[in-house]
TrEMBL record:
Belongs to the LysR transcriptional regulatory family. InterPro entries: LysR_HTH_N, LysR_subst-bd, WH-like_DNA-bd_sf, WH_DNA-bd_sf. Residues 1-58 form the HTH lysR-type domain. SUPFAM superfamilies: Periplasmic binding protein-like II, Winged helix' DNA-binding domain. One of its GO terms (molecular function) is DNA-binding transcription factor activity. PROSITE patterns: HTH_LYSR. Keywords: DNA-binding, Transcription, Transcription regulation. It comes from Gluconacetobacter tumulisoli. Pfam families: HTH_1, LysR_substrate. This is LysR family transcriptional regulator.
Amino acid sequence: MTLEQLRIFVAVAEREHVTRAAQALRLTQSAVSHAVTSLEQAFRVRLFSRVGRGIELTEAGRLFLDDARAVLAQAEGARLRLADLGALRGGVLHIHASQTIASYWLPSRLNIFHARYPAVEIRLTIANTVEVCRAVHQGLATIGLVEGEVGDPMLDSRTVARDQMVLVVAPHHPWVLKPPKRPAGLTRSTWILRESGSGTRSEFEAALRHLGVAPIELRVAMELPSNEAVRAAVESGDAATVLSASVVAGALEAGLLHRVPLDLPERRFALVWHRERAIGPSGEAFAALL
């Protein structure tokens, strides 16, 4: 049984006339007759009685008519739903983003997307870079936004922004007056850092190695799971940290932190997606905004 057979059956039943149904559907009379006959033969039930030159529904036909109309209505509803999704008049966009991006870079772009496509629901999950890439790989996220490089060969990525990391300490830290002259001097302070797996941590450790300092040589007093927790701990303690310039901008302006000169490379913010999964119209529209 096909939707086309149901459509033909309903047209004939409503008109009780094959020729008129064929004209309404823009089909040949033989095609309409064949569709009805095929239904009757497939299920061994008479749907119409031939009375003189006309036809009329049998009892089985009358009962089946309600079901056929319901199925066609549901199919039309599904068609309209797909049309809405294609035109971004509905649906859900699942985004996973790392903390720095989600808290400081992404909100304004989410507002722009919502203004253009208000019917699309946005569901944002915040995690570290490793967790975001895992979610995209597993299909839990349509797209992801992460800091730094993406190591998963099943994920494609595109740079959407650049970010500067900075070394900061509290105003009473010794480095305010005597910053380290050489990279080796970085090991003389205690540190508070983001957790392993975060883009901030991995990019800082890569920068250390480039400077000739092994990350294991740092005296890490605390590992904290959020930028804000790290920033607050450094403001009130004696440790150093490296965070995004966006995260510490307000604290630097307020005098709660001091920036220590250190040549750190820019890192990228990257859009990531699974290379074997379609991201759909909403994902494509969002990616186009970045």
